[in-house]
Write a structure and sequence with these properties.
Elements (H helix, E strand, L loop, with lengths): L1 E5 L4 H12 L3 E6 L3 H4 L9 E3 L5 H7 L5 E4 L13 H22 L3 E7 L7 E4 L3 E3 L6 H5 L15 E5 L10 H20 L2 E7 L1 E3 L12 H10 L5 E3 L5 E2 L1 E3 H12 L6 E6 L5 E2 H12 L5 E4 L10 E2 L2 H7 L7 H8 L6
Parallel strand pairs: 1-2, 1-4, 2-3, 4-5, 5-9, 8-17, 9-14, 10-13, 11-16
Antiparallel strand pairs: 6-7, 6-8, 12-15
Helix pairs in contact: 1-8, 3-4, 4-6, 7-9, 9-11
Length: 342
């Protein structure tokens, strides 16, 4: 299969490229080399065209003879301020719209999209009296007072977190999250208009080799490791008990290969996760131990748009794609202590 891979030089895209080639596919790579992800002066690896997915003429040329598209290109991260919004919308929303239009013009009917767990907002919660509920954003006063757990919107009771499935309501809480949901909506509309096939792979917290570091858009694992390399304690926000699913980038790449080999019947989304939830505090402590650094420091507070618990249900990806993560948390974090970063 000949695959156009956008974001081919990036953290996740470079691993997808390697695994696609190992599986016998031909890869046509495209990457803008955004400084936020690659640093200043980055050079594209062999076989990757430096260009913008918003360049319809370039994308149209690269789609010649392509059987499927794997769309990893995006501006990522939580975001720094509302001033980031135009860039997020331009790269993530406009870029995806241009790509989909070019695919239609070229007659390419299959897309695998790099989705994200951020579309869910908070994860799944249950109240002992009201069943499954959707808590709203946490009050600033509660966060300032160290009350981090969401409460039942009907009765104010504490909630029990559970596994979030792909059918959960969408509730994006950041600019980045809104753009990731919009990508899915554009892709779903494209499917209805063209009869195409789309998998949106909703990545959970991805970590591993080549992860970007030392930028405002870096992931938490990278931030913790940079602190430890400086001899500093990793600073953990809230009380460290917020739960996530940390999934190794090699597993994420494997999920992409499976999705390209398994066309969906229209638009479909699947959680890409380890199925092994851990707290952010667990991540900081495990990484500190692996690196022989100081114990984490719990600092409290929370950023605007932060959510408390997002733990994924891996069942659909296992059933529909045959995907099961292979890298366990302890093994993966120990490797990450010495992995090459960007």
């Amino acid at each position: 299969m000949r695959v156009l891979l956008t974001g081919a030089a990036g953290f996740i895209g470079s691993h997808v490229s390697e695994q696609l080639r190992a599986a016998g596919h031909e890869v046509v790579g495209l990457d803008l080399l955004l400084p936020q992800a690659h640093g200043a002066g980055a050079v594209a690896p062999p076989g990757v065209v430096v260009g913008d997915v918003r360049d319809a003429d370039l994308v149209g040329t690269l789609l010649d003879g392509v059987d499927a598209v794997c769309h990893q290109a995006a501006m990522v991260g939580h975001g720094v301020s509302p001033a980031d919004a135009p860039d997020y919308a331009a790269h993530n929303v406009v870029g995806t719209a241009v790509l989909l239009a070019a695919m239609h013009a070229a007659g390419v009917q299959r897309l695998v999209l790099a989705g994200s767990m951020v579309v869910y907002g908070e994860g799944r919660y249950a109240c002992t009296e009201h069943g499954v509920v959707r808590p709203g954003p946490r009050a600033v006063a509660d966060l300032d007072a160290g009350r981090y757990e969401p409460r039942c919107p009907a009765c104010g009771r504490d909630l029990v977190p559970g596994l979030v499935g792909e059918d959960a309501p969408m509730d994006p809480r950041s600019t980045y999250a809104v753009t990731k949901l919009t990508q899915e909506q554009l892709a779903a509309t494209w499917v209805r208009q063209t009869g195409g096939s789309v998998w949106s792979l909703r990545y959970h917290n991805v970590y591993g080799p080549r992860m970007p570091r030392d930028t405002p858009y870096a992931g938490v694992a990278s931030i913790f490791r940079s602190a430890l390399e400086r001899g500093e304690a990793p600073r953990v926000m809230e009380d460290g008990a917020q739960r996530r699913d940390f999934v190794h980038v090699s597993d994420v790449a494997a999920a992409n290969v499976l999705a390209l080999d398994t066309p969906s019947a229209g638009f479909a989304a699947a959680n890409v996760c380890s199925g092994e939830p851990h707290t952010v505090g667990d991540l900081a402590a495990t990484l500190a131990e692996a690196m022989g650094g100081p114990e984490p420091e719990i600092v409290g507070g929370a950023r605007s748009g932060d959510v408390r618990h997002v733990v994924a249900d891996p069942a659909l990806a296992r059933k529909a794609l045959g995907f099961t993560a292979e890298v366990g948390f302890a093994e993966g974090v120990a490797q990450f202590a010495t992995d090459p970063l960007r």
